[in-house]
Structures
1.
Amino acid sequence: MTPMTRRLALLGLTSLAACGAAPRSAPPGPPGMLFRQRFDDADPVDFATPRPAQFPVHGIDAARFQTRIDWNTARANGANFAFIKATEGGDLLDPSFKDHWRGAGRSGMWRGAYHFYYFCTEPEVQARWFIRNVPRRAGDLPPVLDMEWNPQSPTCATVRPPAAEVQDQMRRWLAIVTAHYGTRPIIYTTPGFYEDANLRSFTGYDFWLRTTAKTPAEAYPGQPWRFWQYSATGLIDGVAGEVDLNAFNGSQDAWQAWVAARAIA
């Protein structure tokens, strides 16, 4: 049995598990077991329908800003997956990536890595940097390409190529990363960047959409989506401070089918 097959078999053993505090010394259940989300929010939003709570599979994303995570406890409280920041541009490795990556893996939750794209470095350089730092492991979630402008960068803040050039750079990065990991990456983006880069015309990829005040249908009319980042102020037992919250667009069965089709083989 391959690692991927074994993980999917474990996933099929359970439906949505009951909530409970995770033992700090061990994962709260077999790899892939789903837990009902018990999140809070420091700045809650009254969304229109569908509300995030209507989706059964939730997760988080983490970077160096999350300085302390008890992954077992976070998972037991509904963090069923985690997207973890790995790289930025062509030479920056998130200082917390290795710890977060190992912690999420040991907890038994689904995990994936993301790359924050910079417009002052060639996409081939950035793709090779991501591959150098993110292991290829059967059963992990697809890589993520984080596409937004770089306003905090001292060198790239004003570099804003036109939509056609943005999309060309994206395709070059995506082609290299797809070939290495054997699965198409996910595209993460924000409303402003989505409009500027005309990403409604960028098809063939799963989208992870940030919108913390409106539903995806309101913020990205007509855009199909797989993940919704609905809060930047989430509160979860096991995570020190605030953390981004995300929902998967579908049922538990849809999650299992998507992972079976899209995880790294």
Note: Residues 9 and 226 are 23 Å apart (CA to CA).
2.
Amino acid sequence: MAFKRILVPIDFSSCSLEAYRVAVSLARSEAATLYLLHVIDRRALEAAREIGLTAEEIDEKPLHAKARRRLREFLANEPDLPSDRKIVTGLPFQEIVQATRQEQIDLIVMGRYGGGGELEKIFFGSTAEKVVRIAPCAVLSIPLAPESRRRP
């Protein structure tokens, strides 16, 4: 099975950064194109509205700008790697699967644990679990690197 189009969902957690490192290595070995996707979680924005934050305090534009800047920095470190990046707002697992279909992705490389809270994982499962269940392609789930699991 050849992987020519690899998607990496990045939420900037330690685990997603480890997934990015693995995806870059795979993309290089497979001569693949790397697609980076950052999803601004719509549920977090809705929760902020519910607790009374103003529109200025939860403006998506600065979130998009910050994510765009960080993704550009990632890709600047890999100038010879064919790549693309996308930032969207929505439910992470849905946006990941939608991007997979739109871009005809062969492989999703994602962190096993993201930036979501533990309570959310207990009641709803992790984003990685949901993606594995419904993705139309192979999914490689990356745990934290061993040195990241150690506590000081």
Note: The domain at 5-149 is CATH 3.40.50.620 (Rossmann fold).
3.
Amino acid sequence: MNSFLIELEKVCLAFSGREVLEEVSFSVSRGEIVTLIGPNGAGKSTVMKIALGLLEPDKGQVRRASEISIGYMPQRITIEDILPLSVRDFLMLRPGTDQPQVDEVMELVRITHVAASPVQRISGGEMQRVLMARALLGNPDLIVLDEPVQGVNIGGQEELYHLIGKVRDEKNCGVLMISHDLHMVMAGTDKVICLNRHICCSGEPGNIQDHPEYHALFGQQSEAVALYTHHHDHHHDSHGDVVLDDSGDKHGAGCDHD
């Protein structure tokens, strides 16, 4: 039995006579992280909007699991400085949200320490965690992440990708992620889809990196990318500081990277 949360089959869409998606087919299952990569104008955002139900395709089918709930994390959000809004208040703005739900997601994404801080004063990495927390409110079956590490430094990017995997594991949700990143994202996803209006290639990261279509799409950038894997006893927060491992011990700041 197919356990997909969402499935696109031969989806086509045109704007003003220009085809932006050509027979795009893929699925996302529970517990799976699927990442869309591709150049600007490839149709990644259009696929995301179709997955969210904001756009209907001209051709093809979109199937969603019965009674599916979807959480969405945008690239960024702008909140005016004149609006007095703490992180906790911002999360509470979501309809149907109560305090225990907010406390739970803040703990999961490790932003409890900024709960009372104005959203305009937290760091870029912390703001991305806040947006992820908002996407998790309501315990969605599928979360859609649009460039989740946008504007975050390298240490914060590592931590956010680690966090996405943790959320998938703890919530057993599906993840559909859009990214321009060809480095760390490759180690944190189960399936990669290379999109350029149509699907050029798709599969596990290790297989994709040897695919000629992948190299044709990204050129020299793909030549420099190696699978990014970690063997270490700690990780880093959005500021790059060392965070204790699950055993509660901090063994130092050294990491072994392959």
Note: Residues 222-234, 247-258 have pLDDT under 50 and may be disordered.
4.
Amino acid sequence: MDKNSAFTARFIEACGSAEPSKVRLLLNISYQAAKNYLNGRLPQTEVLITIAERTSCSIDWLLTGRGKKFLDGSPSQDTPISTGQFDELVRKVKVEVINELSGSQNAGGPKIVRLQPSELMSEKVVDEVETLTGSQP
């Protein structure tokens, strides 16, 4: 992977999208500029500063891949999240819901449930409680 394609991958991760229209809106730049950056063109200093301000990403990380992704170690509240981060968040929420539902029936307290990726596709948490605990809510 050359330097520009590595930058493009980090740029997409920082912006939370590979769609020029979404990047344009996030950074308040032209559609063509967003498309250019998504195709590997390195932004001017002013644009790098805007990216850092709007995504909380370190300019050093964005350009080189070195150092911490976020300057303070955590993203700001409105920073886009990657698909992997979203999947992890969904997994945590589902475990909390399942634990809460199953905990009201178990005298020993809530059970810790580890979900497999295929289980994340389910739309009904109640069905998963029945499957995983063997009891109905």
Note: The longest helix spans residues 83-103.
